[in-house]
Description:
It comes from Nocardiopsis sinuspersici. The chain has helices at 52-66, 76-84, and strands at 3-8, 13-18, 21-32, 35-43, 70-73.
Amino acid sequence: MDLTVVDVPERSRYEVSADGTVVGFCAYHLIDEGVYALPHVEVDSAFEGRGVASHLMRESLDHIRERGLKVVPICPFAQAYIKRNPSYADLVHEG
Length: 95
């Protein structure tokens, strides 16, 4: 399965595609200068348990880091992903 993640700013989300078909997304919105809230992560149930959501989070957070932004992980999956992957802890906005 070939997974790709792209930022779709007009929809305020990162989308993950499997073999060219969008199967999930990580929603975001700007809550402060340089800070994104991550309120929702969703993956089609047919792709659950296959690492798609983790791939989506990794690629999304890497892109956010490249842009010099911080995050407020509201979604429980985003919170758990960052907790399991402490290399992303520096992205969490303290405030």
